[in-house]
Known about the structure:
alpha+beta, 8-stranded mixed sheet, 30% helix, disordered N terminus, disordered C terminus
Amino acid sequence: MRFPRVPAVSWGRSSEGRLFGPHKSYEGRSEQHTHNRPGFEFRLRDGRRVFLSPVLPEDRHRLEAGFEQLSDQSRVFRFFRQRDQLSEAEIRQLIQVDQVDHVAWCALDLPDPPFDGLGSGRMIRDETDPQSAEVAITVIDAAQRHGLGTVLLALLVLRARMLGIKRLKAFVLPENTVVLQWLRSLGWTVVRDEDSLELEVSTVPESLQAPVSLARQRFHRLLEEMEPLLSECLDAMAQFRPSDTPGPIRDVSENKDSTPESGESV
């Protein structure tokens, strides 16, 4: 999946080989105090939990460490060419986001600081078409095939609806068959076929009265499960925003063009 305008890079993983942290309940504890950053915990399909949080300037070290966790093939799939390192300008662009026209969230490992990163999702609004945005999702190789990419995509879809973005697009290399199959199973369609495939999907809530695939039904349930958690997190961020929290965070009520509410990962 190509990076929109600037590359969206995944995050690092535990040097101890821990992936997602232990299997145990985290219900009842304060995420804000435990993690000392905005966000919320979310359960993956196998029961493991991750912490979803907007990208902060302090995530630079995770950005750099995560780049090293990508295999050569993953780098080609995400940059459309081999990359050995990121430039200083690219790093600044990736961690300094406004969360309105450039939305970026990361998935962090549990349970111990510094919460090693597992993946990121990024969405950048089209300057010529404010109701359209390009997305990129990156998951480090060791964390793939656990449903994390689907969780990050669901978060981007929900934020797109809140921000009045009605269409999402992504660019994927033809040889990246896993991602192509995954997106198509979720209703994405190919709108242009050149050196890379351009895929598009509507963020408008669909009616499940019409026949849809099992993957799309599951994705719909994922959106329903995540929406109240994300909304609660955004409300808290709007009321109290530490100096290192990216902003502004625009509420759906502030956007007159916003859409009312009604597979598998890389």
